[in-house]
Amino acid sequence: MSNVLLCMGELAVNPYFVKEACMHLYSIEELCYYVYNNAFLLDDNFVNEKLIEFIKTELNLEKLADQIEEIAGKKGALSNLARILNNEVGYYSENEWSTLIEDIENNSKMSLDVRKKVRADGLLNAGRFGKAMEEYENILCDLTDNDEQLIAGVYHNLGVCAAKMFLFEKAAGFFQKAYENYANTESYQEMLLALKLSYEPTKYLNYLSEHKESYEDSLEVERKMEILRLSWGEQPAYKYLKEIEQQKEEGGPYYESLDRLTDDVKGSYRGYVNGTW
User: For labelling alongside 52, which of 14, 109, 172, 182 has CA 20 to 30 A away?
Assistant: First the structure.
């Protein structure tokens, strides 16, 4: 029975909506889980009056809410929230909370632009490409430091987001801007790859002929494309498509299976674009 966790407070009738993650929290344990796994998306503003009121009235944890109220609006509020949750709720081990608090405090030492990029990178890594693009574009609009490498990194990741949503020509433009701000091989090759995926073959070859300096990088792009082609045969989606084709040959529910697959792909894509995936 050592793995059993006793829950505190009550389950909320009216959950707390976390705008950054487009999700609802119903318990103090869910709050611990969210803070622990998403601290890179948060800052001190996460500790606000609405959160305190939720803990006090919906979870019926008035003493805990009073403690959190004392740190709200002050520097280090997020790391102090983690300390309070560690002391009063637990849920994670002492070492896990300590590591989290250290990470939060290290993040707070970064410049505002870097912290924003770390937050956007987290959204990108979580597959929330539309929301990540919005964050990256906000960074470019509100830059406080003319750091060419940082700007290039933002443009590069904008290109990754666009490519993940099959907006290859748009992605190529972002990768090009990344390269122009801070020349690096990766951004240049990703630009060529995006162009190859967006252009007709003749147009792509014409581009290469007009840019002789792209020759070596274009060879690397072809090598990467071949690796992707070979790995595609091992993907679950490819195997499922083969199963559907077999159904067609055997007179099975071919069109129904195809409709299900199409609906799944559409749903996933909408999630990527809207940032709710």
Answer: 109
Rounded to 5 degrees, φ, ψ at 264 are -65, -45
Cβ pair 29, 55 in contact under 8 A: no
Which helix (H) or strand (E) element contains residue 15? none
Question: In this structure, how many other beta carbons lie within 10 angstroms of the beta carbon of residue 57?
Answer: 14
Q: Which residues contact 104 (CB under 8 A, 6 or more apart)?
A: 39, 78, 79, 82
Q: What is the pLDDT of residues 9-22, one digit of tens each?
A: 678 899 999 876 77
Q: DSSP assignment, residue 8?
A: P
197 closest CA partner among 155, 235, 163: 163
pLDDT at 267: 66
DSSP state of 25: E
Query: Do the Cβ atoms of 81 and 28 come closer than 8 Å?
Result: no
Helix or strand run (H / E) with residue 24: strand 23-25
User: CA 169 to CA 12: how far, in whole Å?
Assistant: 46
- Tens digits of residue pLDDT in 164-179: 999 999 999 999 999 9
* Contact predicate 163/194, CB 8 Å: yes
What's the predicted TM-score (pTM) here? 0.63
Q: Among candidates 27, 45, 117, which has minimal Cα distance to 81?
A: 45
Query: What tokens were used for 253?
Result: 């529910």
Give the end-to-end CA distance of the chain in Å, rounded to a whole number.
35
CA distance 221 to 65: 55
Per-residue pLDDT reduced to its tens digit, 109-157: 778 788 889 888 988 988 889 889 999 999 999 887 788 999 999 999 9
Task: Compute the distance between CA of residue 186 and CA of residue 127 in angstroms, rounded to an integer.
Answer: 21
